[in-house]
Amino acid sequence: MEQRLVSSSHHPEDVESACDASLADLGTDYLNLYLMHWPSPFKRSDELRPKDASGKTIPGDTDFVDTWKAMEDLVAKGKVRAIGISNFAKSEMDRLINNSVTVPAVHQIELHPWLQQKTFTNYHQVEGIHVSAYSPLGNANPIYSKGQQYPQLITDETLTAIGKKHGKTGAQVALAWGINMGFSVLPKSKTPERIVENLGADFELPPEDMDEIARLDRKLRLNDPSTSFRWNFYEDLEGKEWN
């Protein structure tokens, strides 16, 4: 079982109680994986996203290294088997690793054929950190306003042509790309038919297909809440446009 630590519980004194709440909700004694959802802290609060009178998110002042050290304590206490991160830049990862004992077991990041982040994923391999890909179907997720000017990734001509060769859909090929790269892929769907379709994505793509997909990289990042969270995310990564 996996859960994520919300940004309003980053203060070291709040980390264990947030984990305990997750354990109680799930009816379990431990979590297999506990992720720091964002490097950015919000103001300490019982609310998931505290906001000021104008509706803007109120940032906090907790250092994510201190949050991480509190998460390390959860492992020592047996409440969590492994800890990881999500949405960190490389410079933030370097600082975290250089100032703590535990290297993250997992990093959950946006990855799909339009945002392949080859250099960054190679860095994870060197550090021994498993990569978990969210939004592996790209702009098929309607929550993202960015990227909606393009046809859906899953209808891309290259992906659909590759799918036709293997008796698969474009969506299955997009997911298979991530799996063949060695990532975990995290597609979201409430539709039973699409859930079944997603399960059919675990198949091998030959090198020539992987080479074709590599050429689709637009360095198009869909998820960047820098402005609303008041934190400069992904500042040293591909697809960064906010300033």
Please describe what this structure looks like.
With 243 residues, the protein is α/β, with parallel strands linked by helices. It has helices at residues 12-26, 64-76, 90-98, 118-127, 157-166, 170-180, 192-199, 207-214, 226-229, and strands spanning 2-5, 33-36, 83-86, 106-110, 130-134, 184-186. The model has no long low-confidence stretch (mean pLDDT 94). The two termini are 36 Å apart.
Short key terms for the protein model shown above:
about 240 residues, alpha/beta, 6-stranded parallel sheet, globular, 6 strands
Quote the beta fraction: 5-15%
Rounded to the nearest angstrom, the distance between the terminal CA atoms is 36 Å
Q: What is the chain-wise order of helices and strands? A: EHEHEHEHEHHEHHH
Question: What would the average pLDDT be, to the nearest integer?
Answer: 94
- Structural class from helices and strands? alpha/beta
Question: How does the SSE layout of this entry go?
Answer:
Blueprint: E1 2-5, H1 12-26, E2 33-36, H2 64-76, E3 83-86, H3 90-98, E4 106-110, H4 118-127, E5 130-134, H5 157-166, H6 170-180, E6 184-186, H7 192-199, H8 207-214, H9 226-229
Parallel strand pairs: 1-2, 2-3, 3-4, 4-5, 5-6
Helix pairs in contact: 1-2, 5-6
